[in-house]
Amino acid sequence: MVTIKAPAAYYNEPGILERSGQYIRSLGHYALIIGGPTALSIAGERLNTSLLAAGIRTEIKTFAGQCTVEEIEAYTSIARGLNVELIIAVGGGKVLDLSKAVAEDARLPIVTIPTIPATCAAWSALTVLYDPHGKAAGYRPLLRSPELVLADTALLAQAPRRYLAAGIGDTLVKWHEFAVNLNGNAGSVALRSSVATAKLALDILERHATDVYNEVGQQAYQPDAAFIEVTDAIIWLAGLVGSIQDGSVHAAIAHGLHDSLTRIEDTHHSLHGEKVAFGLFTQWVLEGKQGAELEKLVSWLHELDLPITLSQLGITGDINQNVAAIAEGLALREGAAEQLNFAVTIEAVQKAIVQADALGQKIHSGLSQKVIV
Ligand SMILES: NC(=O)c1ccc[n+]([C@@H]2O[C@H](COP(=O)([O-])OP(=O)(O)OC[C@H]3O[C@@H](n4cnc5c(N)ncnc54)[C@H](O)[C@@H]3O)[C@@H](O)[C@H]2O)c1
Ligand SMILES: [Zn+2]
């Protein structure tokens, strides 16, 4: 059995927000818009104008909390109480994740409109759950991806570029996380399909991500073909990688380390893709990567201003204690570690974090010779 979850349609075009009503109309005529306050202040008016012109009435609710089971229930009650015909989610990964679960529980179609290119949450059939304090609390697989994804590249290009870097980090990790599970074996078609899709995303990022990241910060930046490819990699390809499943387990070390990092209060100002990037750096050390190969990979993260040290993640307290807590908190799915050809014991992870942090500090302080990627 294989499941491949994807939206019925994914549009990635500049200015699509102004035309959103014509795409959304077929899904219903009364919508609950759930959006982050910043996202709505930027995109809300244009969205609403287009919806009204297409004959869609709306109710708007802001969401600024954690994506918890309780918040999902609360927003589901709102959707049910209003008797809306569809949900439109506008914002970053948290809002999109919450809204997808709400739509499933209220049995409504959902449209996602990402306003930052920081994750693949607009595409994926998955909601990442947290506790009210922002600590990872598990994953909720969803029956399907959103019906429609509207990625307005003009809007995405105007967001602060830190979010783009986080999205690049959260996407380049995919190939590294999935490919280590092949471990010289043929692997199932589902796994090979995920690895091949992740490789395409990685190729796009290797070709364009650094240039796009450097250009996006400039004034009056207009999204070009390279920007569109990079956002396709972040939203579509990364989304698809995780959506191809045959029930087999695989180890996702960088994401496991991300989840563990969320349990350390100090990291809460850092983004999902930033924590994942440091998790990937640690995975590279665990894999046994070293020397010029490792420095080249890490220098790329550094060029994107992704964290390569614990202090860049916000961790400033007792380092040994924190490293032990991160390593102990890493939970791989049962049976997953056996797929790997390197050890993921608590001791090995502790050692790898310390080693990664030391090399990261060296590169960050410019002591290590810069390796051109
Ligand atoms: N479901 C999935 O497959 C999946 C994948 C990766 C991450 N996630 C989840 O997504 C969440 C992380 O998402 P995120 O990194 O997008 O962060 P986020 O949702 O917390 O958003 C970050 C910030 O971006 C701001 N923002 C939104 N649009 C903006 C704009 N246009 N301009 C300026 N600021 C804007 C918001 O106000 C918010 O404070 C986590 O909960 C993570 O677990 C889910
Ligand atoms: Zn991720």
TrEMBL record:
SUPFAM superfamilies: Dehydroquinate synthase-like. InterPro entries: ADH_Fe/GldA, ADH_Fe_CS, Glycerol_DH. Residues 7-153 form the Alcohol dehydrogenase iron-type/glycerol dehydrogenase GldA domain. Keywords: Metal-binding, Oxidoreductase. Transmembrane segments: none annotated. Gene3D superfamilies: 3.40.50.1970, Dehydroquinate synthase-like - alpha domain. It comes from the Bacteria. CDD domains: GlyDH-like. It holds the Pfam family Fe-ADH. Belongs to the iron-containing alcohol dehydrogenase family. This is Iron-containing alcohol dehydrogenase family protein.
